Amino acid sequence: MWPANSNVKCPPDSAEAATSTEKASHLCVLETERLVLRRMTTDDAEFILKLVNEPSFIRFIGDKGVRNHADAVQYIQTGPVASYQRFGFGLYLVELKESRVPIGMCGLVKRDSLPDVDVGFTFLPAFWSKGYAFEAAVAVKAYGTNVLGIGRLVAITNPDNESSIKLLEKIGLRFERMIRLSEDASEIKLFASDV
Length: 195
What we know:
single chain, alpha+beta, Aminopeptidase, 9-stranded mixed β-sheet, 6 helices, 9 strands, globular
């Protein structure tokens, strides 16, 4: 069942869409009370360049080697856009509904190193502690389960990322075990939904 504050309906599409905001509505996947989650395009490269170079992103998610606009375009094309084409889902750009200001990413990721689909999220620090990550993650989890029919959802996080751990528990995921995504990677925590 969908949370009361989220739905799949997005702003109506217009065949005459002229502005970038109107064009973005064609890419909309989810809408919550305060947020729009939409598919990323290469037009989002400047925002992605900023987001993935935040010290918190590098610390908790990793350095993606995105150093300029061209790197950001490639990151979008080989990451989110490739995932939309391959799986029908991926990481979505999260925007404030009223202003359409981008604030982060949240979505579903299918990694080769995990058998299950995982919920991922990251936000600019200026938008932390406002409930946006929770709002987006609840909607994405419900979308994955109720619309896409994914039976088991997981999430991964660094053991010292207290904020993410609290959020994962708040959306109903429980710590399952420590894992490594590759032989030389550090151990991380795996959380899973009850199935």
